[in-house]
Amino acid sequence: MATENKRQILVCVNVDCKARGSEPVLEAFRERVASAGPSDVEVKPYICFGGCDHGPNVVLYPTKAFYSGVSVQDVDDILAHLNGGPVVERLTGKVDAEIEALMFELLDAGLA
Question: What are the b/e assignments for 4-16, b being 16+ CB within 10 Å?
Fold first, then answer.
């Protein structure tokens, strides 16, 4: 799914995540990446990661980090992780590990 060495920030915009605030999260990622980079990152909406009860969900790809319950206040910490900082532990482990693994397999295969 990654295009030409681009890293991706995928933000779920399906009904449940949207109701929990994913649109402001998506916009915050877009604004911060546009203003401060890095230039090899794409911020994209995504239809669903299967963790609806735990959204908003954000996936870093190909980093393979799955974040749940993300708010605008978490955006800087997630960007720090994308740029080599620590995993934002408070936002991980909420969605079933098998669902996370399946999503990464689909992304790896270019099917999602």
Answer: eeebbbbbbbbeb
Q: Which residue has the tokens 């230039």?
A: 39
**Annotated domain spans of the chain:** 7-107
Q: Read off the tokens for 35.
A: 């203003």
Predicted TM-score of the model (pTM): 0.92
DSSP annotation of 77 reads H
Strands (E), the chain: 7-12, 41-46, 58-61, 65-67
Q: Tell me the two tokens of residue 14.
A: 């399906």
Model confidence band, residue 2 (pLDDT cutoffs 50, 70, 90): very low
Q: How many CA atoms lie within 13 A of 109 on its CB side?
A: 8
Q: Strand, coil or helix: what is 3? A: coil
Please determine, looking at this structure, whether the domain spanning 7-107 carries the CATH number 1.10.1240.10: no
Both tokens assigned to 99:
């669902």
